[in-house]
Structure formats: structure tokens, C-alpha cells
Amino acid sequence: MVVDPAARHIDGESVRIARDVLSAGPGGVKMCLPRSREEIGRVVGRRGRRRPVLVGDDTALLCAVEQLHREGTGARAVALGVVPVGPPGTTPLAEGMGLPLDAVTAARAVLAGADRVVDLLVDETGAVLLGGVRIPATPADGPRRPPVPAAPASVLGPLGRCAARVWPGRRGGAPPLPRLRVEADGVVLADPGSPVAEVSVRTGPGGAGGGLAEVVVRPADAPRVAGAVPPVRARARAVTVSGPEFRTRTWTVSPSALRLTLPRS
Asked: What molecular function terms (GO) are annotated for this protein (predicted)?
């Protein structure tokens, strides 16, 4: 049981409840208390034969996921359990995956849930996204606020952190309509000649994407109303986004790269 230091500080009672529930499972539980979020990955990497369970918010979850991904194929042999704990608005990624947000139910799901294989998105720097990314991020996705799922059925990674990496000039508020070049497996879906309202790249739920990401490019002059110009859609293994004011990023699908324990329902 790897406990995010922020979770201990903000909601120690939920951490205690999760520990008590997990302790009732077979084999008991060993609690690990990293001193910082940077240490979460190292603690997960030193788990030995123990099954890792992350107690914390979405940012802490991504720290654990990145460590498991760095381990390569060995990560597929172990399932990561998650007990979401954090202030309101910091666990939408976990919620979008269907994880309960109360400690008792979430810990019980770790003990009695089902292991599911999921795809990941990995950029050229090795940074990992679980679910997807949206550009430009909405105000709720900005660097100073937590991420939100685009829809109940979708799961997006920590968009604020991603936006800060690829849009270095942004300091809050709504970003300008970007002029982007979007390529899906080498096929150009958009070019800088016309601004876009939104670009989203996401993996299929539960690894159902077959190793391909869904790419959606919504033109700036295509409002979301009936009869409007439809967005451009594609499925690809690698997606590159670049532009005059955008730090180039290439996201590649890493298929079946992670196992998560999720509620059976």
C-alpha cells in the first residue's frame, strides 16, 4: 500500500480506512509512506513480489503508472490497485475509470475487483498518459487546476501537466485558438493554415482500442450543433501535433501496457 504524502496530510482518516480494509484481505498489507511524490515511483519499483496499491489522487496515480510502464513487459504481470484519496476535483481520472471515491468501497474493489488491461499513450520524452489528452485544455484543465474527464465514459490523463509542457506560454485563462499540424500515422488531419477548436487523442476504454488511439480534430468554424461541419476523425498508433506556438509532441500507443484492478461492475 503506497500512500501519497498529500493524501496523508489531507485525509488521513480515508488512508486509515483503506489500510484497515486491505489488512483484512489475504496476505495482509505493508504500508509504505513516500516522503514526496517523486518517491512514489521508486517505492512502487521496490515492491518485490507484493501487489502495489496506490492511495492518492490522479497525479500520484500517474507517478505509479509511469514506474510500471518503465518496467516494460514485467508491468503486465502485476495489477495496480487504486484507492482514490484527495481534495474534491483531484480524482476525475480515477472516477472516469469507474473507481469508487469512498475509501471503503474502493479498498473492497481492490480485494474483489477484476484485472483489466489498458493501453497507454507515451510521448517522445517518456511521459505517460492514461486515457488521453485534449488540446487546448479547457479552463478546468489548466496548469493550476485539476483535470476533468471530457465525458463520463472517457478518461483523460493529467491535462494540466500536459498543457504546461506543450504550451509553455500559457499562464491561465482560455488559450487562443491554436494553429496546429496534426498527423495520424503520417496522414495530415489539420495544418496551421486554419485554427482548430479542439484536438483530442485518447485510447480505447479498457484496452478495447486494439492498440490504436482515436484522434478527433474539431475545426474552429464547426460549432457543436446539428448540421455543422463534422470533426475529422481517425485511428492511429502514433499522433504528432505541432504548430508555430506549440511545442511539438508525438504520442504513441503502448498497447496492453498496464493492468489495473477495477470494480467488476
From this structure: kinase activity
The span from the CA of 137 to the CA of 167, in Å, is: 10
CA triple 123-126-129, angle to 5 deg: 60
| Chosen domain end from 55, 80, 112 | 112
Please give the Cα distance from 257 to 74 (Å, whole number).
9
In-domain check, residue 261: no
Handedness of CA 143, 204, 251, 256 (dihedral sign): positive
Report if residue 264 sits inside a domain: no
Q: What is the pLDDT of residues 75-95, one digit of tens each?
A: 567 899 999 999 999 999 999
Q: How many residues does the chain have?
A: 265
